[in-house]
Write a structure and sequence with these properties.
Blueprint (H helix, E strand, L loop, with lengths): L5 E5 L3 H13 L3 E5 L2 H8 L6 E5 L1 E2 L2 E2 H11 L4 E6 L4 H9 L4 E4 L4 H41 L3 E6 L4 E4 L2 H6 L3 H4 L13 H10 L7 E9 L5 H4 L5 E12 L10 E10 L1 H47 L7 H25 L6 E4 L1 H15 L3 E6 L6 E5 H17 L5 E12 L1 H4 L7 E10 L6 H6 L17 H11 L3 E7 L3 E11 L19 E5 L3 H13 L3 E5 L2 H10 L6 E5 L7 H11 L5 E5 L6 H7 L4 E4 L4 H12 L5
Parallel strand pairs: 1-2, 1-3, 3-6, 6-7, 14-16, 20-21, 20-22, 22-23, 23-24
Antiparallel strand pairs: 4-5, 8-9, 8-12, 10-11, 11-12, 13-15, 15-19, 16-17, 17-19, 18-19
Helix pairs in contact: 2-3, 10-11, 10-17, 11-16, 12-13, 13-16, 18-19
The chain binds adenosine-5'-triphosphate and magnesium ion.
């Protein structure tokens, strides 16, 4: 205490009063004296005293009354009673009522000082304790605040595993009232499948730095909990950290286990992201696999197609093998359809990107589809001045057909198929989840009145090989390839469906400023020519059948089995080669590099790129660099003959 202690002396005997004051003044105390109860009350209303020395016998008031008054108005003041022989009993009574001590007259000076000093020490202790208690209360309140406001659930269990405390986060995360859980066993909220693990963790009673940390469990949500009702999830994925509590330090052998305290963190979002990532990686891996198979398969089909075409070229429709060969061609087409789906899913790039009018494309595809599916009633609502999109027409057609076929399959007894196109502007919020820029998009809606699907199915429909159809009816590639193609066109495909209420697929493709060009379209005619063709491919089969086809069409043919060989032959026959048919994927020097080198030798070289499979738009890259055209394997004789003439007869390019 930096200030001298303030002492009040209440005594009606002036001699005692003055001598006491004198003595205590000398000790450095700040001493006040009064002679009556009333005076005492008056001065007490002005000053706070550390100590009051009270004579129990004063004229105007009972000593006990005064003491009561002091305790009421100034509870921090210590009281020491001064009393004569006669009132020993009342001194003891005063002690019982809370006086600190008493002095019996006559008392020694030493005794007085000691009592006063003790009383003041006691007061100091008392106030320190009060401060500490206050601080404790404050810090407790702070901790309570922290615990209750933590986004994690903080809990304690007793030695049997019953909750003794749960923080309020449990309400938000799981839907239980914290009070409702107190006294309940922890197993009430553990997912059935995780029960054994939870028990194991609890029984381990880990301690201190060997706390069980990073344990992942699933917790049961309260029935009908808001947060989960929407998405039909009844469990929360959590990470747990738990530590045993003991009555003594953990190293002591006879410690007694009191329970467990721990923290539970909601990791559902992280789990979801992990699952999404895994899913994406799986799609990527399956895509690579699918693309690889499609490539080889395509080359096989190409060979079969080539020889079939050659045989058909030499016979007419009356030939006994004519129909069989035509059937083979049809099987090849189905095979090519399959590789097309695989390639679409593998997102092997779009080849033939042109400004496309989706009204026209949707109309054309729907008409083609409707011709064979009379039980489906198709209605259309097209935006009149629909913006163009830059797309691979064949691929978008494939997407639409996949959607139409699915719709038809979802309407076993027939139904309505509503098609709609619309110009829309998508803002940042709408496109950001897809990593696309905001702006103008063309929206195509395909709505059926079929069976619809539940949420579990909806979540999985874009997965490759996910199908709900019986064996042999669906491969589960339709929507996977639609998804791959739309994504590759920087577009969005979404689904909305309810059981019994039909399904709506919505596609958004970025709008383009470019004008739509109409196809010249020369269907059905085989075109011949006398020029020299350099055929470059690493597959023997393609070289053999390709050369034969080209010769059958009248061309002179040179062949090369690799990029460098092609360059060599091109150089050796400078000025002789009218067109190069160049495979894009070859080991060593690929079609892209070969193309660049050919251009260096002859800037006007005409090149038709041929490929079945490309990585991430490689073909369109080469086309952008000026390559004259592109043909997709497996091509038939008609397609090849037309492409060649298209390029060779185009003198401006
Ligand atoms: N319009 C729809 N109505 C109801 N369910 C649909 C619809 N479209 C797709 N589905 C569901 O999505 C699943 C996956 O469709 P997807 O087109 O990828 O494969 P599939 O049709 O089963 O087989 P594939 O298209 O390879 O022949 C279907 O099996 C079906 O359960
Ligand atoms: Mg399908």
């Amino acid at each position: 205490m930096s200030f001298p202690a303030k002492i009040l002396i209440v005594d009606d005997e002036p001699r005692i009063r003055d001598s006491l004051k004198l003595l205590l003044d000398e000790q450095g105390y700040d001493v006040y004296t009064v002679s009556s109860g009333q005076e005492a009350k008056d001065i007490l209303s002005v000053y706070q005293f550390d100590l009051a020395l009270l004579d129990m016998v004063i004229p105007d008031m009972n000593g006990h009354q005064l003491m009561e008054h002091i305790y009421e108005t100034s509870p921090g003041t210590m009281v020491v009673i001064i009393t004569g022989h006669a009132s020993l009993d009342s001194a003891i009574g005063a002690l019982r009522r809370g006086a600190y001590d008493y002095l019996r007259k006559p008392f020694e000076f030493e005794e007085l000082l000691k009592t006063v000093q003790n009383a003041l020490d006691q007061k100091k202790l008392k106030s320190e304790k009060e401060i500490i208690n206050g601080k404790l209360e404050l810090s407790e309140e702070r901790y309570r605040y922290l615990v209750q406001n933590s986004p994690d659930i903080i809990y304690t269990l007793d030695e049997n595993g019953n909750f003794t405390f749960v923080s309020q986060a449990v309400k938000r995360l799981l839907g239980y009232d914290a009070d409702q859980l107190i006294g309940k066993h922890y197993s009430t909220i553990i997912h059935d499948e995780d029960m054994e693990r939870a028990q194991w963790i609890f029984n381990e009673r880990r301690t201190g730095d060997r706390a069980a940390a990073g344990v992942q469990l699933r917790l049961k949500a309260a029935e009908g909990h808001e947060a989960f009702r929407a998405c039909d999830v009844r469990h929360l994925a959590i990470e747990l950290k738990a530590t045993g509590m003991y009555d003594k330090p953990v190293l002591e052998p006879d410690k007694v286990y009191l329970g467990t305290h721990g923290v539970v963190r909601d990791i559902s979002d992280r789990k979801r992201l992990e699952a999404q990532l895994q899913q994406a990686q799986k799609m990527e891996a399956v895509g690579t696999l699918a693309g690889g198979i499609a490539h080889d398969f395509n080359n096989l089909l190409m060979g079969i197609q080539g020889y079939t075409s050659l045989m058909l070229l030499k016979i007419d429709s009356k030939h006994p093998h004519y129909d069989k060969l035509k059937s083979i061609e049809q099987y090849i087409e189905s095979g090519a359809e399959l590789t097309k789906q695989l390639l679409g899913f593998a997102r092997g790039g779009k080849y033939d990107v042109k400004p496309v009018d989706l009204n026209e494309l949707v109309e054309k595809t729907a008409t083609m589809f409707g011709r064979t599916k009379k039980e489906v009633i198709i209605s259309t609502k097209f935006e009149q001045d629909l913006w163009a999109v830059e797309a691979d027409q064949g691929q978008i057609e494939q997407v639409l057909l996949n959607l139409f076929v699915n719709a038809w399959q979802a309407m076993p007894g027939g139904g309505d198929l509503a098609l709609e196109t619309k110009n829309v502007t998508l803002n940042a919020a709408a496109v950001s989840p897809y990593g696309l820029p905001p702006g103008s998009y063309v929206k195509v809606t395909v709505r059926d009145s079929g069976l619809g699907m539940d949420e579990n199915t909806q979540r999985r429909i874009f997965e490759p090989f996910f199908t709900t159809k019986e064996m042999g009816r669906g491969t589960g590639l339709g929507l996977a390839s639609a998804y791959g193609i739309i994504k590759n066109h920087n577009g969005i495909i979404e689904v909305e469906s309810k059981i019994g209420e039909g399904t709506t697929f919505t596609i958004y493709l970025p709008a383009s400023q470019k004008m739509v060009q109409k196809d010249a379209g020369q269907e059905g005619i085989i075109l011949r020519g006398p020029e020299t063709v350099l055929l470059v491919d690493d597959e023997d089969m393609i070289i053999e059948v390709g050369a034969e086809i080209l010769e059958a069409l009248g061309y002179k043919v040179l062949t090369a089995r690799s990029g460098p060989e092609a360059i060599e032959i091109f150089k050796a026959n400078k000025g002789q080669v009218d067109i190069v048919v160049l495979d894009m994927i070859m080991p060593g020097m690929g079609g892209g590099d070969a193309y660049d080198q050919l251009r260096e030798i002859d800037p006007d070289v005409k090149v038709l790129l041929s490929t079945g499979y490309s990585l991430r738009g490689e073909a369109s890259e080469i086309l952008k660099r000026g390559c004259n055209g592109f043909i997709q394997k497996p091509f038939n004789i008609k397609m090849l003959s037309q492409k060649l003439r298209e390029i060779l007869d185009n003198h401006t390019g």
